[in-house]
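Consider the tokenized backbone below.
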């Protein structure tokens, strides 16, 4: 089992666990000790003669648990942030994108080959050009950071064209993903004249989409192509390899859907007076709201609108639940508050978030 300890702080506030070695030197997939490449990267992709791109470098691991009737449950803080970018609530996306762009800049500094002699940068297109592209929320702030560092990459995203609609790749087995996207992209530029290109992704799973975009770039005489991604998908079979523990602050960030960072003032205004705390339950009520956390039956009941409409579906907390655990920390110490909160996180798939 791997103990994930190496992390970076996005803007000094949000801790992200980096991907520890050993990993594939081409795609960052998990490999065994003394293994340079994963089984996928040793051979050309299905239906292809080469990989076309040089390397994939990712900020961290991405994974979501299927936990019906709830929405997919994120594995870690980075997965939570990526789900915000993919989601329907637009309010937080620009801020989350700024934080993540800071993380990608740190990765670039550690891997300068990503932008060495690079002239162009792009994000993959959507099937429907009218759809919002979640990668745009990281592209813009990253370009601003690069510009401040006197690194000028030209955004050619609008020149990457989908020639046909493809099936949703995440629904397909690995080999079919490559067949599905093969030949579905073209670059609406005459000649890239051997200049290097950086492709920016939110999540890489098999690399099929970036592979086909890289093919199209090579056809227009691109130089070296590298992929910079927020997340590298963990496969379900690999989850057991990782001991992924969060400290109390990380748990607050995770359960608050980043509100403890982005909406702290609203949380601070919540008034949690007397509450009842035992080994088996936490109870709190006010004139308008009530919270019951039942540790024996693994149930959380609450009735504020934010929880009822959105938060319970994602198994995350509203401002009232977050403030309650902050109060427990103030009254009983961080160690006690951590035990109560971590006992939910460590067995989250078995907990029921109920509309009171």
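A designed sequence for it:
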């Amino acid at each position: 089992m791997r103990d994930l300890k190496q992390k970076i702080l996005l803007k000094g506030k949000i801790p992200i666990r980096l991907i520890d070695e050993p990993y594939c030197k081409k795609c960052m997939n998990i490999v065994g000790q003394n293994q340079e490449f994963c089984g996928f990267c040793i051979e050309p992709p299905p239906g292809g003669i080469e990989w076309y791109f040089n390397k994939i470098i990712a900020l961290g691991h991405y994974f979501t648990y299927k936990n019906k009737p709830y929405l997919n449950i994120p594995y870690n803080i980075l997965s939570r942030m990526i789900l915000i970018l993919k989601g329907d609530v637009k309010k937080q996306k620009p801020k989350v994108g700024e934080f993540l762009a800071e993380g990608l800049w740190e990765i670039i500094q550690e891997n300068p080959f990503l932008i060495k002699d690079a002239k162009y940068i792009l994000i993959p297109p959507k099937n429907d050009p009218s759809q919002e592209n979640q990668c745009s929320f990281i592209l813009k702030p990253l370009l601003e950071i690069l510009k401040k560092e006197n690194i000028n990459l030209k955004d050619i995203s609008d020149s990457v064209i989908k020639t046909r609609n493809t099936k949703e790749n995440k629904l397909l087995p690995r080999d079919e993903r490559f067949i599905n996207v093969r030949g579905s992209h073209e670059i609406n530029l005459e000649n890239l004249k051997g200049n290097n290109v950086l492709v920016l992704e939110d999540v890489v799973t098999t690399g099929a989409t970036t592979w086909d975009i890289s093919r199209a770039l090579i056809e227009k005489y691109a130089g070296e192509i590298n992929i910079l991604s927020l997340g590298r998908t963990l496969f379900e079979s690999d989850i057991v390899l990782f001991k992924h523990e969060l400290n109390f602050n990380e748990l607050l960030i995770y359960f608050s859907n980043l509100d403890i960072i982005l909406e702290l003032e609203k949380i601070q205004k919540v008034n949690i007076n007397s509450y009842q705390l035992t080994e088996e339950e936490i109870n709190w009520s006010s004139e308008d709201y009530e919270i019951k956390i039942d540790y024996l039956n693994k149930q959380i009941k609450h009735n504020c609108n934010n929880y009822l409409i959105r938060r319970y579906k994602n198994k995350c907390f509203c401002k009232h639940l977050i403030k309650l655990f902050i109060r427990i920390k103030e009254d009983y110490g961080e160690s006690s508050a951590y035990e109560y909160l971590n006992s939910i996180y460590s067995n989250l798939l078995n907990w029921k978030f109920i509309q009171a």
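The chain is about 30% helix and 20% strand.
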